[in-house]
Amino acid sequence: MPKVSMTVNGKAVSGNVDSRTLLVQFLRETLRLTGTHVGCDTSQCGCCVVHVNGSAIKSCTTLALSHEGSTVTTIEGLAQDGKLHPMQEAFRENHGLQCGFCTPGMIMTAVDIVHRKGNKLDEQTIRHELEGNICRCTGYHNIVKAVAAGAEAMAK
Amino acid sequence: MSATGIGASVRRKEDLRFITGRGQYTDDVNRPGQGYAFFVRSPHAHANIRKIDSNAAAKMPGVLAILTGDDIAADKVGGLICGWMIHSKDGSPMKAGAHPALAQGKVRYVGDHVAVVIAESLAEARDAAEKVEVDYEVLPAVVDMNAATKKGAPVIHDVADNNTVYNWHLGDKAATDAAFAKAKHVTKLDIVNNRLVPNPMETRAAVGDYEPGTESFTLYTTSQNPHVARLVISAFIGVAPENKLRVIAPDVGGGFGSKIFIYAEEVVCVWAAKKVGRPVKWTADRTEAFLCDAHGRDHLTHAELAIDESGRITGLRVHTLANLGAYLSTFSSSVPTYLYAPLLSGQYDIPAIYAEVDGIYTNTAPVDAYRGAGRPEATYVVERLVEVAARETHVDPAKFRQKNFITKFPHQTPVIMAYDAGNYDASLQKAMEMADYKNIGKRKAESERHGKLRGIGISAYIEACGIAPSAAVGSLGAGVGLWESAEVRVNPIGTVEILTGSHSHGQGHETTFAQLVSDRLGIPLDAVSIVHGDTDKVQMGMGTYGSRSGAVGMSAIVKALEKIEAKAKKVAGFCMEASEKDIEFKDGKFTVRGTDKSMDFGAVALQAYIAHKFNGQELEPGLKESAFWDPTNFTFPAGVHICEVEIDPETGITHIERWSAVDDFGNVINPMIVEGQVHGGIAQGIGQAMCENAVYDAKGQLVTASFMDYCMPRADDLPSYQVGMTQTPCPSNPLGIKGCGEAGAIAAPPALINAITDALGTENVPMPATPQAVWRLAQKSITRKAAQ
Fold first, then answer.
1. Is A136 close to B23, i.e. CB distance below 8 A?
2. Which residue in A59, A123, A136, A147 has the most chain B C-beta atoms within 10 A of its own C-beta, making it the best mutation to test that interface?
3. pLDDT at B786
């Protein structure tokens, strides 16, 4: 089996994988980073969103081998030095999660939205930008609030 | 109210692990040496299995075992059960066909489980499954309920003539017919309650494990009620006795009813673990979830409402065809019967009601409880009828409702339920204020000036939660009691573990239950831990569904806390040399009445375990109590949701302009969590009304089997919601709680459809009101208006 190496959450990692292994499988099964979830098979739900070289991608739709040498951040790597990322704090503070399954993908997407759209986000923009992430619990009401609050907090 | 006690919007204790990716869901569980299961599923909706040839598959790399219905039958593992007996109106028991965990000779819906391949990796299991050759004799399939009951229709189960499971009824037919004979006006509607797929974001999963040294099984699974799963897998399916079967439901990523049931895959994983000698893991992919999770709703109803000359409702009758799918799922039989027809009185004083329900087999996935379970279907019937009746009799729909509201409690309806408390007009008034109902005419005119159509719709719903008391539901056919258990373990330094039979899969029990305990014992929130979801830790429980965990689960905790307090007073009495009768407990302190002698809760706990101040004849050491709570009645949350929409007739797109929800949940422990439950419920209700639809083609292929084809509501499809509350405490439990989990899903569909039909000026719009369907009706509406 071919070997793949990358940097995940600041650590150099490598593993031998079946060539058809998806990035999400490499993260969850080889590295046991189970915070990244799989909610569908069609790139629709966004539970599997991680950052690769600074951009959000759906890790269920890309092969691990195609990320040789990449820098990957997963939900486990978002908090720094034991301190929660402002977007994580915002989700907790605004009750932006219930069952928690879509949450890692939502938070990784939300951080990416801020990187692309800035720290002042209106409701319409947030709702539109969340089109690739499905939540079945919250009705999105509090997720929208959380993303707006997290975006502002990231400016500080 | 303290900052963390009852009534405070405390931030959730469970969130830290979820926002940092440290949750432990079933698919995150891995056992040493585990194999991976992949199921061979029927591609046909109806077929006989002539032969299964797994020789080629067995030679594929990594294959550990290929098991079929013959293997499961040889091990005398029983089939899946339906746990609620319904009798037809002629007194005959429902016609339940066998439901094997792996097919035995016949398949009855696309996705039916035929065989399981277990291999070293999932990819190898999947590869090998493709080599399993199944020789099918394809039979004609039937998916339409009316066609299924016709003579000559394909026979799905030999036991069920005309594919009919039961012809059930409730209410007084003669009195209802008499009311209709005298009616001034009769409103008639044909209503489709569309089929839905629950789709919690975490798909079902299972890890079965077997320890030969102790001959014991462990099943990790995505369950809302692990004890019920253990009971069924032990007592009925017969995999292992209860003391040799541990069921663990760790973090569960949403349920909405679909994870109540005991399915084939979980049973197969735990059984196969022993057979293969390896732990066996299975996780559904999303298409398997679409094909095989129990679906929701799917009713065809003809409904009629009788109204007298004063505008009062005098009678209601319905005939409903309920699609139960190809097999009876765990509680499926109860959903269109006892969870549906007893709610047909809504919030209204209706003297006569008669309901007939035919449960029908079709070659489709089993249908069972989905958020609301029967109650959304009832509310949709009642609130559509009432709305149309108001329009037909030219009365403002709000006034029509007010005139017919029940105002005196308790109120006995003609369909079993005795409503205990409520103030329906208070919720309506508040919702109308929030919705600025009085100015809707101006806003409609404004929309019209811009070429848009605006409408407003009211939904005044009632639900029945905390299905109980056990003896009563037993008399209606339930196979289980619906009480709840709690154990309070006080540790020597005064921290507390609460073991509950309720299960949290998003509802935030770790926070709300801890708030209750912190409030009652006067100890910090962080000193309380909630333990749930493990049959080895919690002795017995009935799980979480039907919005029961507050009203039933927390009531059990209250009962156990009362015992703790009584015992602790005895301990404090010995320590402070006073009679237990003179000990007061307040804000976490035990005080000898009229003195300054006191001990805090932790000190008393320590003394209870040190046991130096009393002897074993006087008092048992320790501080641990348990309780079972069996309610005396259902609880009856109710409320009013008002939806305002604007439709663009050019595109058919419906924009929800305003959503005003007022709910009466009785007393509320954590308003933030309760509001979150309302938001989520409304979203699922809007999903049903505007987006979601499970569609089978005529041959029984599910054509909406992925998120590409089944429209899940996304952030952009939904509005923000205004949520308000009124409160009439529930008199039948110590906390006055009613239940909030399903309200939004019950209230929302009729509010939205009433608003859309108001905008379009039509009586009926089938759900889901997609842009295409709305556009067609909007064109007719414009033509009609032009002609006027």
1. no
2. A136
3. 83
Task: Please indicate, yes or no, whether residues A58 and A23 belong to a single structural domain of this protein.
Answer: yes
Same domain, A125 and A65: no
How far out from the chain centre does Cα A81 lie? 19
A90/A134 same-domain check: yes
State whether A34 and B27 contact (CB < 8 Å): yes
Residue with tokens 């379009």: B760
Report how far residue B534's alpha carbon sits from residue B223's, in angstroms, rounded to the nearest whole number: 10
A95 plus A46 within the same structural domain: no
Question: What pLDDT is recorded for position B784?
Answer: 84
CB–CB contact A92 B19 (8 Å): yes
| CA distance to B193, B323, B374, B728, B748, per residue, from B144 (Å) | 14, 9, 20, 43, 26
- Gyration radius of chain A over CA positions: 15
Stretches where chain B sits below pLDDT 50 are none
Let me know: does B744 contact B640? Beta carbons within 8 Å.
no
CB atoms within 10 A of CB B593: 11
Q: Tell me the longest C-alpha to C-alpha distance in chain B.
A: 93
Pick A137's closest partner by Cβ from B14, B16, B680: B680
Of A56, A61, A52, A57, nearest to A25 (Cα)?
Answer: A61
Q: What is the SS3 assignment for A25?
A: helix
**Pairing state between β B113-119 and B453-462:** unpaired
**Domain match, A62 and A96 both:** no
pTM assigned to the model: 0.97
So what's the pLDDT on residue A27? 98
Residue B421 structure tokens = 């408390």
Compute the residue count for chain A.
156
Confidence check: pLDDT of A18 > 70 = yes
With left for phi above 0 and alpha for psi between -120 and 50, is residue A69 left, alpha or beta?
A: left
Distance, CA of B125 to CA of B272 (rounded, Å): 14
- pLDDT number for residue B466: 86
Q: Do A115 and A56 share a structural domain?
A: no
Instruction: Please give the mean pLDDT across all residues of chain A.
Output: 97
Q: At A9, which CATH number?
A: 3.10.20.30
CATH number at residue A134: 1.10.150.120
Domain C-terminal end among A77, A109, A136: A77
Closest in B20, B254, B715 to A143, CB measured: B715
Interacting residues of B139 by C-beta distance below 8 A, sequence separation 6+: B44, B46, B47, B48, B154
pLDDT digits (tens, 9 = 90+) for A128-152: 999 999 999 999 999 999 999 999 9
pLDDT digit string, tens, across residues B605-642: 999 999 999 998 999 999 999 999 999 999 999 999 99
Rounded to two decimals, the ipTM of the complex is 0.99
Q: Which domain holds residue A12?
A: 3-77
**For residue B731, is the peptide bond before it cis, meaning its omega torsion is within 30 degrees of 0?**
no
Check residue B1 and give its pLDDT: 62
Structure tokens at A139: 């009705």
Nearest by CB to A140, which of B12, B286, B683?
B683
